[in-house]
Amino acid sequence: MQASSSSSHPLAPYGWDENWEAEFTPYAAQGLLPGRVVRVDRGQCDVVTPDGTVRADTEFVVPRDPMKVVCTGDWAAIDPEGGDPRYVRTLLPRRTAFVRSTSSKRSEGQILAANVDHAIIAVSLAVELDLGRIERFLALAWESGAQPVVVLSKADLVPDATGLSYLVEDVETTAPGVQVLPVSATTGEGVEILAAVVAGGTSVLLGQSGAGKSTLANALVGEDVMDVNAARDVDGKGRHTTTTRNLLVLPGGGVLIDTPGLRGVGLYDAGSGVGQVFSEIEDLARDCRFQDCAHTAEPGCAVLAALEDGTLPERRLDSYRKLMRENQRIVAKTDARVRADMRRVWKMRGAEGRAAMEAKRGRLR
């Protein structure tokens, strides 16, 4: 397949490429249109297609599994023009998905964005840095398959260059392998660098309310496409200006998914993501005397030795333990739910089998 065929495609600015084109081939043969979901709400979604943006019904892509429901960033096959309503018939397999756990007792996952290349974690410098929360976002970002980027927004509120450099250094220590950018949408500082980082791919913008996500989105797009509210002075938090996830095309290339402010950022089966955030602890653990070392009081523990000599900060180890425990609880609850669901299915199938056998006996009499 020629690369030029996909690069000249009307959906190329939205991320369409030759691999998506290959995935879509069987649906094209059915006369369906390709499109990318740019917004989802109330059982319908806006899908950008080669014929423009259309409103489509999501009835056929709302399974019982919340991990498989349609989401902003999905690539879809939809009905051609003429149907009323037009339906999303299926979703193409996702390359990546940013997932958090819901607050429900069932410990289900909630997909915030699909097919994302960069996860931009916006952290406001208007309030004191919460390194633990940054680590939590990073764990989910790494687990998603996207490359995280930490943006320290409202950098103009820290006029002292030395003080700003210390804040950047603190976050870099917390985020090994992650680019950390101080950015000010007010002065323009760092905006061009961020635009270059996210060009040519799909990025999702994440953070708490008041972190300046909508302001950053407007700065990257180059116009006021998102409403902005002022954050409270007392705690730097804001109202949920963005209430849905929206996909925006960037003038310098790439697309951006802006999300509502996240109050809760629960882990969801993010063990490898946690390990990547705390890679220095994982590296140390390989030198522990015991393979199953819990890093609490075991002899020959390399992690505790690093804590003792000061090369590993106690805050990092505490945060690592906390996130690992949380993730283990979520995985255990999820496994228990899956087993319960399987038992229900087996029970139903057993009842259906018994009914079929009774019917067969009735026919033989």
Q: How does this structure look, described?
A:
- This protein has 365 residues and is of the alpha/beta class.
- It is 36% helix and 19% strand.
- The protein has ten helices and 13 strands.
- It has helices at residues 3-7, 18-28, 131-144, 161-174, 191-198, 213-221, 271-277, 279-285, 302-308, 314-364; strands at residues 33-41, 44-49, 52-57, 75-78, 88-91, 97-101, 109-114, 118-124, 147-153, 179-182, 202-206, 246-249, 255-258.
- Strands 10-9-8-11-13-12 form a six-stranded mixed β-sheet, with helices on both faces. A five-stranded antiparallel β-sheet has the order 3-2-1-4-5.
- Helix 3 crosses helix 7 (271-277) and helix 7 packs across helix 8 (279-285).
- The longest helix has 51 residues, at 314-364.
- The protein is globular and about 70 Å long.
- The protein starts with a helix and ends with a helix.
- 35% of the residues are buried.
- Residues 229-243 have low confidence and may be disordered.
